[in-house]
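Hi P.,

Sorry for the delay on this. The queue was packed all week, but I finally got your sequence through. Input first:
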Amino acid sequence: MRADELDYDLPAEFIAQQPAERREMSKLLVLNRSSGVIEHRLFRDITEYLRPGDLLVLNNTRVLPCKLIGRRETGGKVDALLVRQTGPRRWAALMRSTRHLHAGEPVNFEDGAVRTVYLGRCNDKLAIFEFEAEDVLELLRKAARAPLPPYIKRDPWHYNLRRFDLERYQTVYAEKPGAIAAPTAGLHFTAELLEQIRDIGVETLYLTLHVGPGTFRPVKTELLGQHSVDPEYYEVEPAVWKQIAEAHGSGRRVIAVGTTSCRVIETLIRTEKPELSGWTDLFIYPPFEFLCIDALITNFHLPRSSLLALACAFAGPGGLAGRESIFAAYEQAKQRRYRFYSYGDAMFIHAARLQASGRRTEPQP
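Then the structure:
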C-alpha cells in the first residue's frame, strides 16, 4: 500500500480546538466492518454495542505536563517538549528556538519558574536540558503545560485554558505518568459511564503504553512498509494478560480502547512467552492479521499517520477494503460535522469473529 493512499482532505474547521463540553457527549460513528453499515450516535450510547462477557482494555498512562515556553537570557524565544528523562535532572526534548543555542547557555522557562541549562543535542532531533530543581516532575506539575498537538491552537498565556487542558487532555482513569500525548480514544469515558459498562457485565482491564513523539510523525516513505514507528514503552500486569488471553481463547470479544491498547495486545499475542514490559515498535498497516482484537474504539486520525493506517487495517480484510470503509466513514463524518483529531469525536469499529467452537457470530447492538 502506498503512503499517499492515506491522504484525504480535511478543512481546518473540522479540527477540534476544544473537547466536547461533556466527555460522553462526543459523537460516535459506529462502523460494522463486516457489513459496512454505518450508524451515528453519541459516545454515551457505546453501552448499546457492548454485551455481557466483553473485555474492554484501556490504557492508563498519564500525560506529563511537559511543554515549556521560555526565553534565553538574550531574549530569544525557546519552546521545549520534554520527551524522556536521561538523568536525575536531565531531560531530552524536542526544541524550537528563534536562534541557535550554545552548550552551557541558561534558558528560563515559564517566566523564570523553570530554570535550566541547555547542554547540547544528543541527536539530530533531541536536545538535552539540565534542570536547576532537584524534583523535576514536581516542578513540571506546578509550572508546565499540557503537551497539546500543534494543530490545537492556544494563546500561550491564557491561564484558564492552560488549567483546562491539563484536566481534559487526560483520561479520567490516568494513573501511571509517562506519556507526552494522550491516548485520545479514552478521553470520552467518564467514571459514571465506566460503571454503567461494568454493570452490564463487561469486564474492564488496564494496561500501560506511554505515548511518545512518534505518534504524530507522518509517514514520509513512498510505501507504508518502508516506514517505521518509534518504540514506545509498555507494561502489562501478569493477571491482566492472563485475563486477556483467557477471554480471547474462550471466544469472548476483546475490545481495545485506542490504537495504543491495540498495539500492545497485538504485540504480546504474537509470542509464545510474551514480555509483559518492554518496548514495542509494531507498525500495523494493511494488510494485517489481527490475532486478538475483535473491536476497536478510536478517534479520527490525521492523513498519512500510522494511526490512520491501523484503522484502515482493522476496518476490513486486505488493504483496499479497509481503506475504502474508513474513508467512506470519514466522508459521512464530515457531512455530519464530526470533530476530528485529539479533541474530536470517536469511532467504534466492530466485526464478526470466530468463537472457540468455530461458529462465526455478529456482535448485536
